[in-house]
Amino acid sequence: MFNFNVCHVIVFKMLLMGGLLSCASRFTVKGPSGPLVVPLGGSVLLPCSVDSLSSLEDLEVEWKRSDSQTLIHLYQDGDIRPDSQHEDYHDRAHFFTENIKQGNFSLLMKNVRQEDEGQYTCTVHSGQESGETVVEIKDVERLIVSGSDQSLSVYVGEDVTLNCSVDSHIPPEHIEEVSWKKRVKDEHITLYRDRVEFFSDEIHRGNFSLRLKRVRTEDKGLYMCHVFAGRFSDNTTIVLQQLDATDSLLLFCFCLSYSVHHLRMSLVFCPNLIMCFAFVFWGVSEGSVSETVCCCALYILRPLLLLWTAPYINDFKGLINLKRHFNII
Question: Does the keyword section mention Manganese (predicted)?
C-alpha cells in the first residue's frame, strides 16, 4: 500500500515538473486589446511585446500574414533580413531595432492599402523560449468615388448614364449624402426635373449613377458626383459632350453619294433638309412655334431657289466668260 502511494506521488511530481518546464519554455507575447482600424494611405503600429527576456541570444522575431504566411519582416542573428521580406512590404514595414532590449517588437506599417486588411502573427523565439500573438487590421477606412474615365457623347433627345461608384468601409445605407451638380453659372435644378433618376436597385452595391433622360443642348458640360460619409468625402467628375444629329446624318448622305452628280445633289439638299429637321426637333422640345416655322421655311426654300435657277446656269457661265473677256481686253 505504501509503495503504491509513493508511486503516485512520484508520478505527480514528474507531471508537475514537466508542466513547469513546458511553461518555462514559453513566454507571453502581448498584442493589442482589439482589432485595429486604419485610414487608407495612413500608418499603423502593430503591437508586439514581452515583459522580459532572459537572453537576447538567438533572438528571432518573425512577422507574417496569418492567412497566407507571407513574410512581412524578419529579425534574425542580431539584424533585420530585408532580402527575405515580401516585395509588397518593401519600404512599408519598419521594425524598431532600438527597442528590442525593452522587449518591444512592434511593427510600423506605412501607406496602408485596402488589401492589408486581415490578421498578422508576431512570433518571438529566444533560446528555448517562444511565443506569439495575433494582430488584426479589421477595417481600412476609405471612401473612393470613381466615375467614367472618358467624356461621354450623346445625341439630343437620347438618355445617358453618368457613372458614380463608391468603394468604402462604410455600408452604402450609412452614407449620409450623395449629390449631383453641374458646374455652370446660373443653372437651375428645375431644368432637370422629371428627367433624372437613380438606380435604386444598385445603391446597396455602392452604385450612385445618375440617368439623365431626353438630353438637351444645354445639358452639355461638367458634372460632379459628391459623396459624404462622416468625416470622409470624395467626388468624381464626368464630362458630357452633346453631339448634333446633323453631323452623322450629313456624313450618311455623303456616303450614299456614289457619283459626282449625286454628291453635288447631296451637298445642295442634305444640309438644308437636315437643318429643317433639326429645327423641328428643337421647336418641339424647347423652341417656339413661330421660330420653328420660319427657320424650316427658310431651309426648304433655299434648295427650291437653287432648282429654280438651275436652267439658267449656262447663261450664267456665258456672262462670266464674257466678263472675263472684256477684263482681258
Answer: no
